[in-house]
Structures are given as C-alpha cells and as structure tokens.
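Propose amino acids for all 154 sites.
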C-alpha cells in the first residue's frame, strides 16, 4: 500500500517535472547539453517540493512536525536522486547515443522517462529508510550511516 501511495505521488511529481521541463524547453527551443541539464534540474527541484509534502504526510504518514534536519536530509538525498536523473539524461542525450531519426523533443522525453525510473528507485528507499522513518520501518529499516549523519548534522 505504501509503494502504491508513493507511485501516486510520483505521478503528480512526474507531471510537475515533465510539465516544467517541457515548458522551459518549449520557451527556449529544445537545447541539449548544459542548458538541458539546467532545465532538468530546475524541473526536478520543483517536483521535489511537492514530493516532500505529499510523501511526508500521505505516503509515509509522518505526523511529526517538519524539522530542519528532516527537510535537509530529504533534500540531501533528493540531490543524489537529481544526480542520478541528470546522469541518465546526459548519457542518453549528450554522449552520442542521440538518434537522428527521432525528433529531439521525443528523444529528450524518452531520456527523461528513463531518468525518472532510475531516480525513483533511489528516492523511494532513501525516503523510506532515512527521512520518514516512522512506525514499523523505523525499527526495521537500515541504520542511518555515519556518512549521512555527519553530512547532515555538521
């Protein structure tokens, strides 16, 4: 049930992410390279705000008040998801794998689908295990590593 809620939230995040990305691309042509990665990052960050609110309260039922440490950890782990997402976008659009037979807008969106799937796996487990640790998975999830703790609580 929790993963189903995560998936529903993911659909809304994806609509925001793809909508913002395609809006930026439409306004400025369909660039590839650094400009595409910047637009992708902006769209991903916008969707992440939606993700935090819906996942915290609905998906994972975390009724605790939001703390700076929880929000910071969420965005730290989401940044890793962003890195995964941008890496996939880069590999599929900037590394010579671009198919000349496919229109740029189609290829960018296909790359974005692959990037979304790759980052979704990371995001689900990192949110579940480290950010919204409540109830039974707070006791059974993996421990927060010293690296994550030290990076966040400095």
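Proposal:
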């Amino acid at each position: 049930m929790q993963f189903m809620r995560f998936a529903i939230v993911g659909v809304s995040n994806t609509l925001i992410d793809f909508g913002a990305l395609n809006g930026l691309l439409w306004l400025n042509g369909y660039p590839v390279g650094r400009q595409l990665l910047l637009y992708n990052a902006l769209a991903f960050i916008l969707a992440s705000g939606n993700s935090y609110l819906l996942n915290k309260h609905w998906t994972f039922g975390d009724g605790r008040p939001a703390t700076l440490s929880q929000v910071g950890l969420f965005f730290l782990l989401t940044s890793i998801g962003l890195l995964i997402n941008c890496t996939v976008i880069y590999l599929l659009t900037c590394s010579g794998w671009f198919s000349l037979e496919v229109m740029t807008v189609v290829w960018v969106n296909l790359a974005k689908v692959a990037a979304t799937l790759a980052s979704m796996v990371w995001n689900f487990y990192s949110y579940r295990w480290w950010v919204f640790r409540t109830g039974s998975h707070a006791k059974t999830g993996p421990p927060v590593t010293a690296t994550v703790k030290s990076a966040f609580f400095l």
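The first helix runs from residue 2 to 27. Residues 2-153 form one domain.
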